[in-house]
Amino acid sequence: MSCLDIVFARDPYVEVNMTAEDAYAEYQNGMSPFLVPYYLHYAAFRGYHPAMYELGNLYYEGGRGLPKDHPLCQYWMRRCKKLGVKESKFAEEFLMNHFGSYDAEKSAIMGNNYIFGNSSYEKNYRMAFPWCKQAAEGGIDYQMMNLGVFLWNGYPDEGIPRNREEGELWLLRAASTGYPDAIKNVKILLKRDVFPAYCELPQWLPDKSVNGRILFERGKAAFNRKDFERATYCLAAACQDGYENEVRLLFPASQETAKITEELNKVIADSNNDNLSYAKRINKLEWKVGVMGFVRGAAYLGDLYLESEGSEEPEFSEESDWEMDTFEAWGKAGYYYLYGAVHGYYYCQYMLGEMLYLGKILRDDRENDYKRAAYWFMKCCDNRGGYEACLYLGNMYQDGLYYKKDLEKAMSYYLKGAEYGDMFCMFMVGKKYYNGNGCVQNLPEAFRYFDLGRQKGDDYCTFFVAHMLYYGEGISQDKPKARKLMDEVPSYVEGADEFRELIKRERGFFWK
Predict the structure, then answer these.
(1) Mean pLDDT across the stretch 375-382?
(2) How many Å apart are CA 338 and CA 68, to the nearest integer?
């Protein structure tokens, strides 16, 4: 792990709102070699002295994912020493035994005196440079940054040669201590794309909060402690960042043979017994999915958990030991949809996308995650059975959610969904052709799609068909048929009651 990883990634890798003590406990558990350094830094940056002392020790020899780095070792030992806690004495002894009695802080003050011309000192970079170097090597964060700037820029007239590689390393060291000005300088250099390969630049950039590997590790850790909400969110997001194969391996799946299908259908039929509470129905199926890897069973479990959240009966009976609130139910539903989604089951891909779209996964960050939803909708849309995802993708392009607003692209997804047989997409295509929104106005085509939607049972399509028949828009006028169709349109359809009143007035008598 490089200093750059620590600079930009120490917080997003750790659980939201986690205390420093809990983060240090996670470090001690060693749940993932990759995540260990991040939990340790998270605790140290929040002033937790055991974490500071541990960081100093690890940087001295290198280990647990951290490089050997004596300046950073001294930095953390000095911070721990100043706290006046029991580890402070150990830190002081460590510094004395390994680095002697040299006072880096006095060197830092002298360096600043020459850099800024403080007191009776004249501004002189030539004189400042050796003091800054001594202080930086002794673990003083702001002098690490100053040394990095000196070496990066170079001042030949002052006897300071340019050495950008060395300068970059010192800037990264300073930034990894959390020193704000150093982080600002590193971000500027990153934007200029000037860091060479030796800095071990990760594939992701600072403007991305997390990458696939971290999401995958966090998801696994959350799953192991049975935090299904966070596990679902992290693992679903990791798939988008290139870790779908790794996530798939976490979920055992059986190749569905005729025998397995028959057994699964029997279990589902038993689970459909309305006399059973959701807890019992879930219990009858859950172990089958976990042990035998029934992918369609996972989809059904997702539905059960989602339904249990909105049921009037107690979600889980007193006979079971389960107590689950709405968010937990959503988390378990999402988890089982993810189970099916990574194995290519289009229905699960759609439902997982919908939960992300509606912000039903992850209580700490429960916002509409259109980016992650779009990934699963797109995968679902490639399957003929996933026509419902086309409606969401069309809406996202229509309203500019995650994607840039593009009416023509929205129309293409509505058309695709309509071809697959989705009545809502048929309505949207008809409406676009009717208004000429994102396409050339075409009333005959609008009527054709409205009529297809009406045949599928869509009330809004039925209203538009009646309206177009009554006025002869794109079709031969047929008022009697229009009146008959209006009998089928419920009042919740916008404009339906007003249109009925209009027809009554034109007929001149009471019309039911």
Answers:
(1) 86
(2) 40
Least confident stretch, 50-64, 185-199, 243-257, 418-432: 185-199
**491: part of which helix (H) or strand (E)?**
none
Of the candidates 392, 323, 320, 321, the one whose C-alpha atom is nearest the C-alpha of residue 351 is: 392
Classify residue 241 by its DSSP letter. I
Long-range contacts of 379-386 (CB under 8 A, 24+ apart): 379/341, 379/349, 380/346, 380/349, 380/350, 380/353, 381/413, 381/416, 383/346, 383/349, 384/420, 385/346, 385/347, 385/420, 386/346, 386/347, 386/349, 386/350, 386/420
Q: How far apart are CA 229 and CA 326, in angstroms?
A: 11
339-343: average pLDDT: 87
Calpha distance 1→185 (Å, rounded):
20
pLDDT tens figures, 397-450: 998 888 889 999 999 999 988 888 889 999 999 999 998 888 888 999 999 999
Cα diameter, the chain: 105
Where are the domains positioned within the chain?
A: 3-199, 219-382
Instruction: Specify burial of residue 384 (Cβ count, 10 A radius: 0-12, 13-18, 19+).
Output: exposed
DSSP 3-state of 155: strand
Q: Tokens 């830092």 sit at which residue?
A: 108
Query: Which residue did the predictor score with more confidence, 182 or 297?
Result: 182
